[in-house]
Amino acid sequence: QxxxxxxxxxxxxxxxSLRLSCAASGxxxxxxxxxxxxxxxxxxxxFLAHISWSGSSTYYADSVKGRxxxxxxxxxNTIYLQMNSLKPEDTAVYxxxxxxxxxxxxxxxxxxxxxxxxx
Length: 119
What we know:
The chain is mainly beta and 119 residues long. It has strands at residues 2-7, 10-13, 18-26, 33-39, 46-51, 58-60, 68-73, 78-83, 92-100, 105-109, 113-118.
């Protein structure tokens, strides 16, 4: 089992920045690839960013590429999502998740943190 807890959400103005954190506990965190997702009211969950277990490989959804940066610190069992140039359409609940790379599925999820971008 892996337990994930997100933090860092809040209210920010258009064009502002936030950094989300996701702290992990339980099984060996460094063996998991990790991802960030979000879900806005009335919409499906949306993939945002992925990082390999070592942090050497990342990829992003087109909607956030160039604005968001995913990173991880395995010594701290934490991943981050740096969000810049925020837009009202970035308003959503943001989730981190741990991926079982052997099956390519995200098996563990955090409870989410709300991000609201005001215009």
